Fold this protein.
Amino acid sequence: MDSPRLSRRHFLQASAVTAIATGLGGCWPNQGTSQIQFLNQSIPTQLINQFKRQFPQNNALNFKAIATLKDSFTQLETWHNPPPPSKNPMSQLPLVAANNSPPAQLITLGDQWLSQAIPNQLLQPFDPNRMPQWSALLPRWQLLGQRNAQGMPAQSGQIWGIPYRWGTVMMVYRKADFKRLGWQPEDWSDLWRPELRQQIALVNDPREVIGLTLKKLGYSYNLTNPQTVSTLPTALKELQRQVKFFSTKYYLQALLNKDVWLAVGWSNEIVPLLKTHAELAAVIPASGASLWADLWGMPASATAIDPTYEWLNFSFQSDSLKQMALFSNGLPIPDQTVPLEGLLPHLPSTSPLGVSPALFNRCEFLAPLPPSSQADYDTLWQAMRTS
């Protein structure tokens, strides 16, 4: 069974990563170049090419696509604690040696990974004086990257992450099956309808599953004392009976195989599927869903060079934000100059990511939990899965 922790985005193809990296000027950095490592498909190639044309003096800045957020975190750990030199002559081959490349200037992290990267000293903070666009971000987005030394969100904290893309958890379903039922899914409460028993696939993630149940009951995803909600254990047991599959890796495969009628997962994995499978439709639950974000992090041993900040400032320009809306499977970060409603017209007309400001306000990022609260969630999860 796949791991339930920090498990967003396992549905990526390594071959696509290689193709993108090659198209952006080579899979591996040349000696003397600086590197930006970004999550595959999270940055439009059009935007990178435009940056290279606009700042030709920064052509030594090499962009490399990486497969998963877990790979990013593992790379950070390797840079922080490099392995001892190998005596194996195979380690001198180019492809093997590339795995021991110098730290990148920037690397993509998911918002939930910051709480591990910061206290483990894998990152260094950004300089806000070199990012004039930072002050234009709305407080909700600033707080996503501002953390204290323990990795907890803090308004007075340093800037450890620069958000550049976000999305939601969604319900994706087979249209024909629901046409026979005579209704379409609209909110989390629909998951408990008796006609969907054993017709649902959920990600194997306690925060997501318990969180959507709390949302259905009228509470926050980030409730720190879930044991006080008397109706929660019963609701979780009822949901357990509805679900046929819990899997972070294969929940969409179950839907495509017609093993289930509905699945719950992350928008960056679901939206590309809708483009090639007309039999599917997706919806963001009306009461609000959890949010995820990709952020730029600066490795602890990186050198804060000027091209790094030139890229950060370039990618936050209004035209760059609109390209993100058009060509990425996520949503760009709105700010005071280009608010959320100003980005929506630039989405493809078929996109299910038309998040209205009202719906967005009902959605929540998953905040780090104190250890006592995490223990409560673990207990609830165990009781649900063994019921």
User: Anything to note?
Assistant: Residues 9-32, 94-98 have pLDDT under 50 and may be disordered. DSSP finds 16 helices and 13 strands in the chain. The two ends are 18 Å apart (CA to CA).
